[in-house]
Design brief:
about 375 residues; alpha/beta; TIM Barrel; six-stranded parallel sheet; two-stranded parallel ribbon; about 40% helix; globular
């Protein structure tokens, strides 16, 4: 079995937090338990999750992002030069605001020791012949995006008059984290990246506060910073990108097919594979897959994590066949479209329904790929 992602039967990485973990995290936030006590609860929850991932016959194991409040901000907060505070507005999702902390620059970006390295080491100890550990982190582009959105741009300019210096500092910080992950034994890293969901949205120019030319310049910067961060990586380190349009409490933030960014993104970003959201009409059709360069694989996110309704297996199999019009079957894999809990609130389904979704992905993969 290949030890490198993507796998024919794959996942994006986050899972619903069990109630006892949510309770412990709340108690820690309220000063009722210590950090050491919280860590013990997190360890217990993660060990149980890893056992369930192995029982589900997944090739990859993750910590479910159980030590985070959100898929991206906890990672960013660990860098020097970053501040955050509780938001009054939040991020607008479809029908609901994601009340996650406002996050911004307070100084130059750098990193000494990132706590995610220890998080990975805990999962690494449970690797076996058929199971490999993966570390999920937000993409460098996502980090940059956070600092150049309209509400942060003036604060960012006061610290970085030259945006190229910011790009360089973020990329340098990521190189440090990636190197430390590699030294800890990590060979599978996943970038999670919502910036492309924003870029393809009909309101993209408004969200970025720019015009069409400015948006194209942003697209080029987002690709460039991701490539800068991973240049000179060890040859046996696999880095893949998962693209999402927002995933909070079963809601979404953006919509639009990949067509607007496909020619640039799918051919120029130097990752091994793209995990692509294709669970409903918001994601567009498969035509954009024709632009994926021949050295890359695609993981089709056809099973939604946003609701408990179990998809029809035949319909999903037919969709995989449809995708082969644009990319050969040997370069395709299948997974849920996103994680089940990009933030600790989780999506609106039960753990039993979550594992039923995983089982369906496995059943489809067995039939389509003759596993």
């Amino acid at each position: 079995m290949s030890k490198n992602a993507p796998f024919k039967f794959d996942i994006v990485g986050s899972f619903l937090r069990p109630d006892f973990l949510k309770k412990a995290r709340s108690e820690y936030s309220n000063g009722k338990i210590t950090l050491e006590q919280l860590k013990k609860v997190e360890d217990e929850a993660i060990k149980d999750l890893i056992s369930k991932q192995k029982l589900a016959r997944l090739s990859v194991i993750t910590d479910g992002e159980f030590r985070r409040s959100s898929w991206h901000l906890d990672f960013i907060w660990a860098f020097d030069g970053i501040g955050h505070e509780k938001t009054n507005i939040g991020i607008p999702f479809h029908g609901e605001a994601a009340l996650i902390d406002d996050t911004y620059l307070t100084g130059k970006v750098s990193i000494k020791e990132h706590p995610f390295i220890e998080h990975f080491k805990f999962v690494k100890q449970f690797e076996e012949n058929d199971f490999v550990a993966r570390q999920t982190i937000p993409s460098p582009a996502q980090f940059l995006f956070q600092m150049i959105i309209p509400q942060n741009i003036e604060r960012t300019k006061k610290i970085y008059a030259n945006e190229e210096e910011l790009i360089s500092d973020i990329a340098t910080g990521y190189k440090k984290v990636i190197k430390d992950l590699y030294l800890a034994g990590c060979r599978n890293v996943q970038f999670d990246d919502c910036t492309w969901g924003v870029c393809v949205d009909p309101n993209a120019k408004f969200i970025f506060g720019t015009d069409e030319i400015g948006l194209q310049n942003i697209i080029e910067k987002l690709i460039r910073i991701n490539n800068l961060a991973i240049e000179d990586k060890p040859e046996d380190l696999v880095i893949n990108t998962h693209i999402c349009r927002g995933n909070f409490h079963s809601t979404w933030a953006c919509q639009g097919g990949y067509d607007f960014v496909a020619k640039d993104l799918f051919s120029k970003e130097n990752v091994n594979a793209f995990y692509l959201e294709f669970d409903d009409e918001r994601s567009g059709d498969f035509k954009s897959l024709q632009y994926v360069s021949e050295d890359k694989k695609v993981v089709l996110g056809l099973i939604t994590t946003k609701n408990p309704l179990l998809e029809n297996k035949i319909d999903i199999i037919n969709r995989v066949k449809e995708a082969t019009k644009y990319i050969p079957l040997e370069r395709l894999c299948i997974s849920p479209q996103c994680g089940f809990a990009s933030t600790e609130e989780g999506n609106k389904l039960t753990e039993e329904e979550q594992w039923a979704k995983i089982k369906l992905v496995h059943e489809v993969a067995k039939e389509v790929f003759n596993l």
